[in-house]
Structure formats: structure tokens, C-alpha cells
Amino acid sequence: MRIEQLKLTSFRNISQAEIPFTHGINLLIGNNAQGKTNIIEAIFCLALSTSFRTSKEAELIQYEKPKATVFANVETKFGNQQIAIGFEPKHKTLEINLEPIKRVQDFIGCVKVVLFTPDELRLIKDGPEIRREFLDRDISQLSPVYYHCLMQYQKVLSQRNKLLKFEKNIQSLQQQLEVWDAQLAHYASRIIITRRKFISKLSVSKFFKESHIMRPNETLSMEYVGFGGNSAQEIEEHMRKSLQVNLQKDIELGYTSIGPHRDDIKFFIGKEDAKIFASQGQQRSIILSLKLAEMEVFFNEIGEYPILILDDVFSELDSKRQKALYDILQNFQTIITGTSLKFKPKTSYTQIKIKNGAIHSIKQM
Predict the structure, then answer these.
(1) Which range marks the domain in which residue 253 is found?
(2) How are strands ordered across the β-sheet holding 358-364?
(3) Is there a contact between 29 and 352 (Cβ–Cβ < 8 Å)?
């Protein structure tokens, strides 16, 4: 999969831009605050229908403009597709091959991306919600069924939490929760089993297990922390029983204290918990290894690589790690942002210079 051409109108600080991309490495070069990250944000919107930087989509529209549009010609193993998204202050439109798409789940994954930004280091350092978001983002691109289960789970969870908070009649509460708990456990089991399988596939990837970015004596592993059970049925039954056991606690808290919305991932270097023991450099190397593993899992699942987006990835990598990374990146379309090139790829690449929200120059190197 690759983007052949990207067109932006009134998106962030970009009034108008048409950007051709090549199959391998594409370098977006420019000073800070010129529009580099805005371009990759637009590509992300084509994949997930929303931004990775803000939940307020009105912020994506250029000041005093009524609408922002993002359009791309995308080459896939099924042929060329035209993917578009338009943002208005209180509304957005989705299109595939000029046909309006009403359901988000029918749009997500038509463009597939794996994203690295400096904020991705939060996957190691911050709370579990960041790691769950990472899982949901990736798996939703691969599985509309997973996305559907996730949306349904969140709706049922919201309804259950409202009952816990506002229903004061215990007998009435218990009767109502029987229905909601059965649905919650059903969707939870599907989410958990899919997440586990995805983590297992990432763990055995050569890019993660045998990372060329980590030091030779550093081995990586990860595990999913959630409900036990060998099948969706076992997890579903375990979840239903646990919801009953935790009912009094949940009433006191006013929300549901167990389920996949509370689960986590742990990363390890050797036997040490990376969140506690990994240095800043090790954390960055872990995440980069994880991103390459994601590329391999996507390929194994759908038969083609997604688009890899690396925002400001080389600023803290030494030349040896930069070279190791470049050697891998030539195998699929990669879009990289940076302020300068300290170490240039040895293979051919496209250099695109950005200045004041406009394309300054495009060179095949």
C-alpha cells in the first residue's frame, strides 16, 4: 500500500498543497512549525477518520475557512482507490472512490498506517489508557468486526456506568445490570481475545524479538495483562462472574472497575519492566522496534505493508541506528519528518521541503 498523491485544502496552516510520494523513503524537511506534522496528521486522518493530535476536529480547519479537505490516490493490492475526508466545524464527510461513506467502520482501514511520533514514548512511560489506545488503533484498521465490538462495548459500558451512578434502588439496579452485564461480557471477551492474539503476533516478529535497533545483549518481550481464559467463552464467563463479585465495589465507585477498558500491556528488556528500568534511549528503541513489528504483522494479515509514518524519529538516534533503520525502511513506503538530514539514505529517496505551510521543493535523490 502506498499513497501516490496527497491533496490538502485549508488543513491547519496549509492553504493548498499537492504532494507526490514514492514507494520507498520520503523525507519531509523543514524548520519547526512549518507544516511537516500537519501533513502526516492529514494522512492519519485518512486512515482512522480522526486526528492523533486533537479530539476537536474544528482545529483542523484553517483559520477563517469553512472547511478542510484531505484527498489521496492510494495504490493497494486491489488497485487504485481515491480516499477523501472533509472537516467542517460540526461535521465531517467520508468518501471512497467518490462514494459517500456513512459508517466510520466502513472507512477505517481503507488507508492503513503505522505511526511513530515523539509522543509514542508515552507507550512506555504513561498510564495503560495510552497502550489500550495503541491496540485499538491498530486492530481497528485490520478488523471492522473488532471496531464494531469496541464501539458496542463502549456504549454498553457507558450505560452500565450511568446505572451504577444514578440508580439508587438496589433491586432495580441488579435486575437491569443482568442484561447489560451479559452484553458487556460478550463484547469484552471478543476484544480481549483479539488483543491477545495481536500482542502474540507482535511478540514473535523478528523486528521486535530480534531487534536491530536495540543493543546486541538486549532482548525484548511484551505481555497482555487482562482477564484469564483460553477461549472467548471462558473469558466471557469469567467476566460475568467478576462483574457480579465486584458489584458492591462498582456501586461505591460509580463506575465499572473491571474489563478491557482497564487492561494493560507490559514491555520487558530481558526480565526487567521497561517502564521502571528502561532509559530514554532504550524506550525510543523499544517503540521503534514495536513499529517495525506492526509493519510485519499488518503484512502477514492483509498481504501488503501499511504506510509507515515517522515524525522526528532521527533526532536522538546515533548514526549506527539511523543506518540500521534506513536499511529496513526501503522495503515499504515510509514518510519521515525532520528539520535536517544528519545521515542520508544510501538508496534513492524523495526529499520534500516545507516552508510556511507550502511545498517549497520536491527532489528525487
Answers:
(1) 130-137+146-280
(2) 113-116, 307-311, 334-338, 25-29, 349-355, 358-364
(3) yes
Sign of CA dihedral 83, 333, 318, 347: negative
As a whole number of angstroms, the distance between CA 278 and CA 284 comes to 9
Q: Domain tally for the chain?
A: 2
DSSP conformation letters of 255-269: S---SGGG-EEEEEE
User: What is the rounded CA–CA span in Å between residue 96 and residue 306?
Assistant: 18
Cα–Cα distances in Å, from 246 out to 37, 188, 240, 249, 257? 44, 16, 10, 5, 8
* Cα dist from 21 to 73, 86, 237, 325, 352, whole Å: 10, 21, 49, 19, 9
In a domain, 58, yes or no: yes
Segment (H or E) for 335: strand 334-338
pLDDT of residue 45: 96
- pLDDT band (50, 70, 90) for residue 283: confident
Give the C-alpha separation, 146 to 148, whole Å: 5
Q: If you average pLDDT over every residue of the chain, what do you get? A: 90
CATH of residue 197: 1.20.1050.90
Q: How far apart are CA 261 and CA 188, in angstroms?
A: 9
pLDDT value, residue 361: 83
Which CATH number belongs to the domain containing residue 90 in this structure? 3.40.50.300
**Domain membership flag for residue 119:** no
Residue 360: predicted pLDDT: 84
Helix spans in the chain (H): 36-48, 122-125, 128-142, 144-166, 170-204, 206-209, 232-245, 247-253, 274-277, 280-302, 319-329
What's the pLDDT tens digit per position in 69-104? 999 999 998 899 999 999 999 899 999 999 999 999
Rounded distance between C-alpha atoms, residue 239 and residue 182, angstroms: 9
Report pLDDT digits (tens) over 121-169: 889 989 999 999 999 999 999 999 999 999 999 999 999 999 999 988 8
317 pLDDT higher than 90: no
Strands in 220-225's sheet, in edge-to-edge order, are 220-225, 264-269, 272-273
Share of the chain above pLDDT 90, in %: 64
